[in-house]
Every structure is written in C-alpha cells, then in structure tokens.
Specification:
Length: 153
C-alpha cells in the first residue's frame, strides 16, 4: 500500500478505532465475533442433549481410553469448555478468539486421529483461520489489552 505524508489506513494504525458500521473491516469483525459467540455456545450446549449430532463419535478412542469417564461424559466437559469459549469471545474477543483458535487446534488433532473425519478436520482448519482473523481484527476494535483484566499494559 502506498502512503503519502501521515496518511495511514485504519488497519495500519495501532490505536483502537471507534467502530463505524459502514467500515468493511468492522463488518467482518462483527460477523466473525457473532459467529464465534453463537456457534461455540450452541454446539457446547448440544453436547448435553445430542440434538444436532451424536458427539461421542468425534472423540478419538486413543484419547478417550485413558480417561476415567466414558466418551459421553467427556463430551460434557467439552461442552462446558465450548460454552466458556463463546462467552469469552462475547466479553473479550481479542482473548476469546485465541482461546477458540487453540481449542479448534485441539479438535483438529483429535479428528486427525479418527479415520473418516479428515473432511471435518479440514473444515475446522478453516474455522481456526477465521478465529485467527477475528483475533487480528479484534486488535483494532477491542481496546482492552490481550490479558485484560490481568494485564494493564
């Protein structure tokens, strides 16, 4: 990008920006933030009811065998983590997006241990990239430090 003088684009600035509804970057941020609040909460809650899918089938036996609980019970813990991740995105998208990206990384590794679920792992890799994009956009639109309220710098 060619700039002259002190002109810099909104994405090049390091200061948090006041959201503008017509700004395409803000629109992308809002879409991704909404998606990463709603999807983890919905899918996390569904771990308790299995309305959308039977979630146990997505847990690799090599990971579930050493657990002191059944795969079904393990999915309850997964559901809690997903709901919490969605709430963190809602209240602090800059941090929450990293939590979701890391969680998706774990899900992808689990899926790669299951024959026949490589397509789902590839889809989740796309979601991981979207979570990273949300985190990068959140550096512009979420003025709090990454480790807020722990870090004040």
């Amino acid at each position: 990008m060619v700039t002259t003088g002190s002109h810099r684009s909104i994405l090049e600035s390091h200061e948090p920006t006041r959201p503008q509804g017509s700004d395409p970057a803000y629109q992308a941020y809002a879409v991704l933030r909404t998606a990463f609040v709603v999807a983890p909460i919905v899918f996390g809650l569904d771990k308790f009811s299995n309305v959308l899918v039977q979630w146990d089938q997505y847990l690799a036996p090599v990971l579930s065998r050493p657990l002191p609980v059944t795969p079904h019970q393990a999915m309850y813990a997964v559901g809690v983590v997903e709901v919490v991740a969605g709430l963190v995105v809602a209240f602090h998208p800059r941090l929450g997006a990293l939590v979701v990206a890391a969680w998706l990384g774990g899900i992808i590794l689990n899926l790669l241990l299951l024959p026949g679920f490589y397509d789902v792992a590839l889809r989740d890799f796309g979601l991981l990239l979207a979570a990273v994009a949300l985190q990068r956009l959140a550096t512009r639109f979420d003025p709090r430090p990454l480790l807020w309220p722990l870090g004040r710098g």
